[in-house]
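Thread: "does anyone have the structure for this chain?"

Original post by V.I.:
We have the sequence but no experimental structure in hand. Need at least a predicted one for the grant figures.
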Amino acid sequence: MEANTDNTSQLTVREIEILKLVTIGMTSDEIAGHLNRSKYTIDTHRKNMLKKLGMRNTYELIKHCLQRNLF
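Reply from O.Q.:
Generated one for you, tokens below.
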């Protein structure tokens, strides 16, 4: 699957918030505690982001954000 490199605008406000926290190295457990949500909810948001952006893993997602100075 080819990454859709221009469509971070597809992400919800919550997904962008989680993505920012992922890019600074927070785990799903840490993000869940920080946002007062369950780890399952955070993992679901992460899976949705990967699907929307056509990426296979979190590494690709972080690399994409850092290369484009998104955060």
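V.I.: this helps a lot. The mean pLDDT is 88.
O.Q.: and Residues 65 and 71 are 7 Å apart (CA to CA).
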